From TrEMBL, chain A:
Protein name: ABC transporter permease
Record membrane topology: Multi-pass membrane protein
Entry annotated with the keyword Transmembrane: yes
Domain of life of the native organism: Bacteria
CDD domains reported in the protein's UniProt record: TM_PBP2
Segments crossing the lipid bilayer: 30-49, 56-81, 93-114, 197-225
ATP-binding keyword on record: no
GO cellular component: plasma membrane
InterPro entries for the chain: ABC_perm_TupB-like (IPR049783), MetI-like (IPR000515), MetI-like_sf (IPR035906)
Keywords carried by this UniProt record: Membrane, Transmembrane, Transmembrane helix
Intracellular or extracellular location(s): Cell membrane
Residue ranges constituting the ABC transmembrane type-1 domain according to the UniProt record: 22-218
UniProtKB/TrEMBL annotation, chain B:
Record PROSITE patterns: TAT
Domain of life: Bacteria
Keywords: Signal
The name this protein goes by in its record: Solute-binding protein
Amino acid sequence: MEALGAAVGLILAGDGELLSIVGLSLRVTLMALALACAVGLPLGALLGISRFPGRGAVIVLVNALMGLPPVVAGLLVYLLLSRSGPLGDLGLLFTPTAMVVAQTVLVLPIVTAVTRQVVEDLWAEYGEQLRSLGSGRVRAVPTLLWDARYSLATGVLAGFGRASAEVGAVLIVGGNIAGHTRTMTTSIALETAKGNLALALGLGIILLGLALAINGAAFALSAAARRAAAA
Amino acid sequence: MSLTRRVLLGLAVAAGLAAPALAQDKPFITVASTTSTEASGLFKHLLPDFTKKTGIEVRVVAQGTGQAIQTAKDGNADVVLVHDKKAEEQFVADGFGVRRFDVMYNDFILVGPKSDPAKVKGTKDIVAALKAVEAAKAPFASRGDDSGTDRAEKRFWKEAGIAPKGDWYRELGAGMGQTLNTAAGMNAYTLADRGTWLGFSNRQDLVVAVEGDKKLFNQYGVIAVNPGRHPHVKAKQAQAFVDWLISKDGQATIAAYKIGGEQLFFPNAAAGS
């Protein structure tokens, strides 16, 4: 109850700090999601329709990476971007860009794995047809992705959930710097550490509300699109 | 290809959204510091003043002392502000830091449950108190994260001639605030820095059990990272921050930070060491 009060209070106050934290969280997560989709959708589709030796192993690897612990992803990106690491000269550690990179690593396997499964099923069903129309495997990818868009949306939303909910990776590579790399989840961790449990839970409720809003919007969009397609 | 166009459009929108966050025009330095200074709220009080005077933004990464020193060693920070004098002097001796300055102190306290199973409440001797905790097999929550506080705790156990082990001694591997949350949850004793304790709101049954021992003195030091070792560090701005912290102005700002009327950190900058 106290937490709900804290959440409502924070929203009503229109707190500038809260707004910038929410803004950063959304920016980082959406950017990571966009990058992961740009790579993962075509990659997953290709994996779904192609046949090559070792394909099974690749699929197992991609599926297993869906369970990559965020802390490990964070640590890998940290070591990569650290000044003593191979990409240290870029000076990207403790920046929002580093957080985008880490979250992309987390989301990419989910988008790729879901796309692979969906497209593989679709290809099994319509591959014959597409090929008889003279479409090569690679040229069939955009068509398949487009036809599978509603199923793929679920995979993309799962990726969004993974990115927006994790704290381990962004904490390590972002550093939870106030006003710079502090996100919803790292704020929740910090407020918990300060013993401000009601405030921490209040922030959690706001984060959950955002996830609800985005998933609701996606649902409504897809329903509208289906109706338009049927009409 | 409508799908490709959609993806590209999405990317462009995302890039546009991300752009303002990625812009880095204001001069800034990165300070690796401890969870105690962050969780106590000191930086929130201190930094706006410095930024207003110099135009330099300070980005604080709050870690345990051991991790903060490692961050600076790797060249990922321009300044370290931590509390383990021996490790700090080693950091300078190894050529990673320019020079170490005392900044401020506060003290460690032993907090524990009101019921006080080890009967140490109100005593002063930290070493004797730890012996009593061990004898009573009263639950003790240890940071276990190689932070400054953790290192201090390990020193006290060593002085007590005890290698703490057993069901009652719980190593958490967590920051100060998390450790206090856990200690409150399981009614355990724990060593804390007073700053975090004063800023901590979830005390439940925890109270201060032991305080005032000279050994509980907790000195914070500040060091600018050596540009000879890491040429990319912002040596000038880093030194400006160090100089301000130990200046009359910076010291007065530290002294002015209070929670509930109680001062959290006591400035004591003098000559560097």
